[in-house]
Amino acid sequence: MLTEFGKIFIFILVAILFVLIAFVMAKLVRPSRPTYEKSTIYECGEEPIGSPWVQFNIRFYVVALIFLIFDVEIVLLFPWALSYQDYGFYGFAVGIIFLVVLGIGMAYEWRKGDLEWARPKIQVPVLNNLIKRSEVKSES
Amino acid sequence: MIQEILIDLFGNEIVAFIISAALPLVFIVPFVIFAVWLERKVSAHMQDRLGPMRVGWHGVLQTVADFIKLVQKEDIIAADADKKMFILAPIMVFAGSYAAYAAFPFSSAYIGSGVDVGIFFVIAISSVVVAGLLMAGWASNNKYSLYGAMRSAAQIVSYEIPTALVILSIVMVTGTLSLAEMSELQAGGFWNWQIFGGAETGLVKILLIPFMIIAFIIFYISSLAEVNRTPFDMPEAESELVSGYHTEYSGMKFSIFFLAEYANMFAVSAIAAILFFGGYQSPFGYIGDLLGIDWLVPFEQLFWFAMKGLFFVFVQMWLRWTLPRVRVDQLMTICWKYLIPYAFVNLIIIGLITLI
Asked: Looking at CA atoms only, how far is residue A126 from chain B in angstroms?
């Protein structure tokens, strides 16, 4: 007898099989005539400049770290959410204390500016050479 | 129920379960063909155009024609790309989004796998998609792809937290993680749906309604971001990143990405329907019960499930042509400074109400 997770495993296998069948089917039908231009990397028609595998904004890393903390917290809260009603208000309070500690952590991150993403500076266009209406009129 | 019938029919468990696992595919592929056409029609009519009209009645077969074209397209892998990862990425993305369907109760007669941890499993497995997207972006060796992949990873990962918090508050009310049990709890007309306080009675139900509505709004916004739909379609912002992580993909690999994207759209809509709108339950009652035909009821439930899912997919399309795209910093602000604190407070209040 398959367990319920065994059924899920079959689901994943069916999905992989479906994609592979689709790939093989397409391979039988499609043409394959690679040229130099086709196998260059797409950069809007220009010759690609440099490698894209460069340093990335540290923000992505920070977001991933904060996410990790919150995700672990949510995983811990799931069993609590299922069983806190058995313990009445006491069970609820335990969970809330845990949440409050996390809330303080989040407030700290917020205060430290870790939740800020680089914002574009708004540049108000400045007009230097204003042509006066009277000048335009006199010239015409 | 369908699984038992299949076991009887084939006499072999493994064969029966393989066929049972392929059943959602029979649902997803026509759904995607229909949804792509619908998306084009909806966008066209919102812009006062007609959209596809040539292939079939009002262009219904347009997607089929597109698919036939895509199958014949040359599959280009750039010389500098990481070939193994490039091929593996679409497989991973599709497998991740398809596995989530295992836990959905399509009707009371069919559920792919009755795991007790249903909704928890769905949250977990949909994170595999992020890894697939990052692989696609990284393997392409393309600046647009990598930017798109990094953005979508940051976005999906961030918005997973408000989604999970809302799901947590629903779990606190229902006391179960299984999606099938959640749907069963909401039986008996639309007044028993979770958004109207579920099967609770009296004061608790009345108090729950406003917070359930807030929970639903938070859930819907973050689910939009999780499937990279407008107004949160930063990862594939056409006007700046060409098309994000699948810029380098062509032919069949591209269509698998497309399939996975639409499958995900239906998946989040289905979760919204199951959590808040009764899953496969009919809002009024069943014709099958009325006429005394038992086998009709599961089919009606499938119909209601598909209709609820389709309705939310339609709302996603509607929003796409209503709202402009947000900036990256706004995206992160909405998630971390608004949705997560609101979801937290909402969770605590719902917890307090359930204690009454």
From this structure: 24
Among B55, B72, B89, residue at a domain's last position = B72
Rg of chain B in Å (alpha carbons): 21
A18 has a pLDDT exceeding 80: yes
Question: Could you tell me if A71 lies within 8 Å of chain B, comparing CB atoms?
Answer: yes
Residues B287/B289/B290/B293 CA torsion (nearest 10 deg): 80
Can you tell me whether residue B151 is helix, strand or coil? helix
Q: Give residues 38 to 57 of A whose Cβ lies within 8 Å of B.
A: 38-44, 51-53, 56
**Domain carrying residue B15:** 1-72
The predicted complex's ipTM stands at: 0.85
The CA distance from A117 to B129, in Å, is 24
Query: Nearest-CA neighbor of B168 among B346, B352, B341?
Result: B346
Condensed to tens digits (0 to 9), the pLDDT of residues A25-66 reads 888 888 888 888 777 777 777 777 777 777 777 778 888 888
Contact state of B75 with A32 under an 8 Å Cβ cutoff:
yes
Whether B75 contacts chain A with CB within 8 A: yes
